[in-house]
Amino acid sequence: MDRLRLIGHRLSFSKHTPPNPTSHSNLSSSLKVQTNEYNPEELAESSESESETEENLKKEEDEKDYCEGGYHPTYFGERYGTEKQYVIVRKLGWGHFSTVWLAYDSIHHRHVAIKIVRSSKNYREAALDEIKILEKVNNGPENHPGRRHVVQMLDHFVHTGPNGEHICMIFEVLGENMLSLLLRYKQFQKQKTEEYKKTSVSDDDNLSAISVEHHMSTINDLTILKESYGGLPLTLVKQIAKQLLLALDYLHRECGIIHTDIKPENVLVEINDVEKLVQMLERERKDRKLSRHRNSRSQQSSDPVVGDRSRSASHRPKPIRLSKPLTSPVETRGSVDNFFRSFSFSQKRASSHESFMHAKSESAPAVSSIPPVPPVLAPNPAAFTISPQAIPEEEESSEENDEEFVDATEPPIPFPDPVTSATRRVSSLTIDPHQPVSRRESVLSTVSRQSSTATTTMDFDSIISVKIADLGNACWTNLHYTNDIQTRQYRAPEVILGGKWGCSTDLWSAGCLIFELITGDYLFDPKTGTTYNKNDDHLAQIIELLQIWPSKLYLKKCKYSREFFDKSFQSLKNISKLKIWTLLAVLVEKYHIEEPLAYDISKFLLAMLEFEPKRRMDAGSLSNSPWLSDCQLEEHLDREYGLRGQDIKGWCCEQSD
Question: What is the DSSP letter of 253?
């Protein structure tokens, strides 16, 4: 398998001989002074308590792949690095290209993610290419606001094991990806919508001091729900979109790098305090272990031989097979509620109607300080994450459970205006004149406190921070490793047609991603039909949405155009009838977005969704879009809005030296 074929396949496992136990350092003694949160023997024991049944291991790598040229066998407490400073804590996940682990850096006293690459020559070469790209990212200008929104590699080295030499990369630990965040919000939306349906506004007459807090949280929930149209709340989407664009501008203009695989899974939430989170999770683990121990003692057999044998077995070195993404430190429901409630929405936004009527007007981005980011986490092992499982295990995929969520294509429930609702709810609180004075004062104090909290929250005081991750498929603007790039739903037309591509190809994917964050749906999801394939359908969907036929001159330059278009380049070969449904119409008719707002959104997205790559607006320029002017981010890039990559090398084709 050569470098080109490796691009799209990054992860799997192999058979090995266990290393000599004496060659592994004792984690508990080495970390006793630095932190008392970790004990490798306890971790190994807790791991063994997880049943490595055949059913569970079906989701893991194939054991046969532990062989020469394959994966490296990894153990709890094993040390890695040039100074043996990285101590394995647990397995986060696996894939075709590498395995990913949570480790403790005993020199810098922090947790990191370690990616251990397969040892065959082809994988090592691909990893070396990735390291060069990551080093360029690390060495770019620190004053560019997009730099902090690209994942940072902290270290890299070669580790020799029984299966060969493995390149290892150390990364900062990140949180959940955008796909996971979308799924969590859909659950939150479904739950709150059902609660609202069951609650009659007329019941407010019975409001008491005890229930004021509940009503205020309901007000905030209504504010959130009114800001979403099937996907994430728009305020959150704007913050994510701006940071994504800043990161892409940094990669394109400052680093000369094209990501080539922008999608929700590769944009991750930054964790504000990894160490605090891990400590919380470790305390929870110890509490669960203590509870299990108490239960087992009451049911334990009196046979001492079995007990002794069991204990000694737990201390034998055992290669780790089962992935254990870290679970959330709080209950699933509470975690979801608290996270989304922390993102309430500014009432100071400019009217969408004004924006619609004055489409050409521009405004500078608002500025505010950035408070700590709530630790929202979920599994994404390939992108080096600590991952609390916000989604219950029995709900395995969004596709299987979409029908359980709120259907954005149905007419929205007429939620009351949150501010009006707040006033009415508080004013309806009846105070009995015969109550003791102290009781009346308590009620009034509660109302005042909660009312004040609601007002503060609506001024918007939380900002999410995200990072682009997984540069394993990235390339240089002057060196494209392969033309087989991008995940299907985010694939640009030039890639399908075999045309020239460059940095602007990332912008197409970004437009598709942001649409998905807004609506919860793919923008393009092509299928195979009886007379056409996915590429045919994909091109048809693009033309139907853009309502613009690509120019004959452009199509003639694309290698595969004649496979999809007739000789005149005015119609598709395999799909004769197209149904035009513009992006603006889709937003209004399918997602019930008010037309002025839908106009603003479509204008923003269409700047990235130009059929011809050279016509797309560049990321840095688009970060100053009027639609993003109220997203409350401190970061700002001094770049004129409306530029189309004229000054970016490799913008729409491979740069020639």
Answer: I
Residue located via tokens 């106009």: 599
Asked if pLDDT for residue 345 goes beyond 50, the answer is no
Query: At 401, is the secondary structure helix, strand, or coil?
Result: helix
Q: Are 177 and 232 in contact (CB under 8 A)?
A: no
Q: Is the pLDDT of residue 256 over 80?
A: yes
Which positions ≥6 away from 259 have C-beta within 8 Å?
248, 251, 266, 468, 471, 473, 474, 506
Number of domains making up the chain: 2
Residue holding tokens 């009781």? 439
The pLDDT, as a whole number, for residue 442 is 46
Is 186 a known ligand-binding residue? no
Give me the amino acid identity at 486: Q
CATH code (residue 7): 3.30.200.20
What pLDDT, on a 0 to 100 scale, did the predictor assign at position 79?
A: 96
Residues 155, 196 within the same domain: no
Q: Give the sign of the dihedral formed by CA 31, CA 37, CA 38, CA 41.
A: positive
Neighbours of 278 (CB within 10 A): 23
Residue reference for tokens 């100071």:
348
The dihedral sign for the CA sequence 523, 527, 530, 535: positive
Strands (E), 306-355: none
What local confidence, expressed as pLDDT, does residue 218 receive? Answer: 63
In 503-513, which positions are buried (b, 16+ CB within 10 angstroms) versus exposed (e)? bbbbbbbbbbb
Range of the domain at 469: 173-295+332-657
Strand order of the β-sheet with 164-171 is 79-80, 86-94, 98-105, 110-117, 164-171, 153-161
- How far apart CA 43 and CA 278 sit, in angstroms, is 13
Does one domain contain both 340 and 468?
yes
Q: What's the burial of 531, exposed, middle or buried (CB within 10 Å: 0-12/13-18/19+)?
A: exposed
Tally of CB atoms within 10 A around 196: 17
Q: Say if CB 415 and CB 226 are below 8 A apart.
A: yes
Structure tokens at 121: 């020559």
384 vs 633: CA distance, rounded Å = 26
For 424-466, the three-class secondary structure string (H helix, E strand, C coil) is: HHHHCCCCCCCCCHHHHHHHHHHHHHHHHHHHHHHCCCCCCCE
In Å, how far from its chain's centre is CA 309? 44
Separation of alpha carbons 279 and 110, rounded Å = 11
Q: Is the pLDDT of residue 374 over 60?
A: no
Measured CA distances, 447 to 428, 452, 510, 511 (Å): 11, 8, 44, 44
pTM score, two decimals?
0.72
Query: What is the spatial distance between Cα 347 and Cα 455, in angstroms, rounded to a whole number?
Result: 10
Of 131, 156, 172, the last residue of a domain is 172
* Cβ-proximal residues to 32 (8 Å cutoff; 6+ apart), any chain: none
Active site residues: 261
The number of helices, as runs of H, and strands, as runs of E, in the chain is 23, 11
Whether residue 213 sits in one domain with residue 135: no
Is residue 449 assigned to a domain? yes
Q: Tell me: the pLDDT tens digits for 187-233?
A: 888 887 777 777 655 455 555 544 555 555 666 666 667 788 999 99
pLDDT greater at residue 1 or residue 91: 91
Identify the bridge partners of residue 269 per DSSP, sorted by sequence position: 466
Neighbours of 427 (CB within 10 A): 11
How far, in Å, CA of 227 to CA of 238, rounded? 11
Q: How far is CA 378 from CA 114, 240, 243, 343, 596, in A?
A: 17, 17, 20, 18, 35
